[in-house]
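Below: protein 1.
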Amino acid sequence: MERKQFGLGDVVEMKKQHPCGTNQWKIIRMGMDIRLKCQGCEHSVLIPRHKFEKSLKKVLVHAEENK
């Protein structure tokens, strides 16, 4: 199984919804942990990279397309 390619500034779709009702998140920090900002309510969360990669569904918008 190939690994999904993602980068800083990408908007991604996760498997589970946020309580506000959306499952779209923007990657705002990368390292051993990934910080995500909810596109619905602007709440940010910090999760381990392994858990992030496991629950990532797909990349919706790459950062290069946002510019």
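Below: protein 2.
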Amino acid sequence: MSFFINHIALSVKDVNDSVAFYQRVFQLKEIENKASNSNTRWLSLNEGKQLHLIPRPNFEIKTNKAVHFALSTSDFDLFVKKIENLNIEYTDWHDVPNEIFIRKDGKKQIYFQDPNGYWIEVNNDV
């Protein structure tokens, strides 16, 4: 038996703001929500993976940095410059502002939050 990641689902306060954020930061393409006629919006994470943004305007969202999802890019340094140009604050794993964390295996990573407070890691582990 094998398992593969299909999608990540996040509850969001404002689905339109969240879609705009993920498209602005990652250029994610919106795809059809094939599951329902709800206001949930789907974005493609490539290779058949999806990000589902589920509107929950009245829910309190609590999370911490250890609860995150990670995306990898071979253009890590270029991505960091983009984040800086978008004035998105990022930290290393130890919460040092505008610092890149270098893991024991030499991979670089940064952390930042989306409009709902969810933590996102971006690394160069490709």
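The longest helix spans residues 15-26.
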